[in-house]
Design goal:
Radius of gyration: 21 Å
Oligomer: single chain
Helix content: 25-40%
Largest sheet: 4 strands, antiparallel
Order of helices and strands: HEHEEHHEEEE
Shape: flat
Length: 171
């Protein structure tokens, strides 16, 4: 009887050690590694899934605007994730990147959240990016990202709400 209890305790201990190894990132892992601007990439938790380089409060326009004024168009202001894939938002120009999105579509924490959701869990849209859709029948595209810029193939060109007229479709 004592050996059965001992085995159960050892099995529970081994399970706890294995579970903690999965939860606590190693110092050399990507989840614990600092990004190029020194901020630790936060890839866990519902609020930070799919984005790093910033905390939720720094999606402020003036903060990014000041950053982009003092850095080149190739400077990365956001990094988004889709599984192991990494997509970046660079300062850009008036035709691509953060400056383009701010000028043409507006930038705020909602735009940042929509981009993160589209890249993290959206469907490929055939334009080299990802889109989110309504949960209706039929479903309609709500938000679109387009990937690929002069600076890189995994860079965000633009992102915007889709407002096209919808015809009468059947399910």
């Amino acid at each position: 009887m004592r050996s059965t209890a001992s085995r159960a305790v050892k099995a529970a201990l081994a399970t706890a050690v294995a579970a903690s190894a999965l939860v606590i990132p190693a110092s050399g892992s990507a989840a614990a590694a600092p990004s190029s601007n020194g901020v630790t990439a936060q890839r866990a938790g519902a609020e930070n899934v799919g984005v790093s380089n910033v905390d939720a409060s720094s999606a402020d326009v003036s903060s990014i605007d000041a950053t982009c004024r003092s850095h080149s168009r190739n400077y990365i202001v956001r990094t988004y994730y889709r599984g192991p894939g990494k997509y970046t938002l660079r300062c850009g120009t008036k035709t691509w990147g953060w400056k383009h999105i701010k000028l043409r579509h507006g930038w705020n924490s909602t735009m940042d959240r929509k981009i993160r959701a589209a890249i993290w869990s959206g469907q490929p849209n055939g334009r080299g990016g990802y889109s989110t859709y309504t949960q209706t029948c039929p479903s309609y595209e709500k938000f679109r990202t387009i990937i690929g810029t002069p600076a890189g193939t995994n860079d965000l060109l633009t992102a915007y709400n889709v407002t096209t007229a919808r015809g009468a479709a059947k399910c």
